[in-house]
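ok so for the tutorial part 2 we go from a plain amino acid sequence to predicted structure tokens. step 1 is just haveing the sequence, like this:
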Amino acid sequence: MRISIDATAVPLNPTGVGRFVIELAHALSKYQDLSIDLLVRKNDSQDWQIDVPTAAEESTAGVHMHYLAPKKRLLRLGWEQVGLPRLLKSLNTDVHHSPHYTVPLLSKSAIAVTVHDLIFFDYPQWYQTSKVLLLRAALYGAVYKADAVVCDSKYTADRLLKLCSKQDGRAYGLDRLLSGLESKLESRLYVVHLGVDTSRFTPIEPFFGYDDAQLKTLGVKPPYIAFVGMVEPRKDVPTLVKAFGMIQKQFKDLTLVIAGLKGWGSAEEEFRRALNSLSEPDRVKRLGYIPNEAVVSLLRKASAVVYPSLAEGFGLPALEALSCGAPLITTRGSAMEEVGLDAALLVDPGNVQQLSQAIESVVADSSDKPLLSERTKRGLDIAQSHSWDACARGYMEIYRKLS
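step 2 — the prediction. this is what the tokens look like for a chain of 403 residues:
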């Protein structure tokens, strides 16, 4: 079977969806009967670290890199609709996998598309109007065209079905367009959870002193609370900062460490306002993007890992925290709750008081410690059941149905 995977939107420093594409390609490359065409941007310097077959093996199973897509987003979207269908025909592709919402509408190959979240429907104020309109149109085009629509979580799948109902579509002026789409989608809708590399995200450091050395390079010293992710509106980092401010006096040595790319728009502005409201703002350490090795150490040594997200499609960083044995605090009512199950301490999204109390209960040396230990054990069990190999098996089942 020959499949192609669109990796043209994976950035140089991949997070979230980018990590999903790379890890899925790694896991799929182990299948001897599968030939993978990985489509990337022209002159892409990304180190994919996937075994690429030699010229003599080009006709056999393996991973084949194609550096063809334009680097600029708009040109890339145009290439997807015009150039990609021709490429897939020339490659004799059985199944094309689009992991970024958009699909080549004119392609004759079977198509699987992954829908990670629907935040641009539920919270359009967090995005530019032009991007919201583009994403919505792309999503409905993908749902119409794709032979398989795959969601990272049941939460997202249920929301997608509702969005494709005539009743919900009326709210977006799409009731005629969506007529009959919900029933058509049900037979093509799948849920495949993302995975975690439990050989890397583990509670055991490679050797004594490894984590301390990693933290030293970051300028971080325990005890601390950790957040890893971009400071974007849906992550609600300002609420975390305010909650930390409420316990600063109680835990005088505790710091809040925020690692991840700089956000945009109101997210950064609200973060700065929350930071300036603290009595000791210097106890919040902003690291920016950090290497993968340092992420593991940061999670492993944290007194608590907190993800106060208002909305998520899956919550991969939460799963990685559980795999490191870190006490996890996150929000209920989204995919984060589906992933964390009973291993995470849950609070209402946007509730500063609840979040502050949850952090206090985890950090403090109290009678809750046995419960926290049980949650840690449960978190490790959950992480073990969410491997990238399991994710690849789920996608292989879908590919085989379509080929």
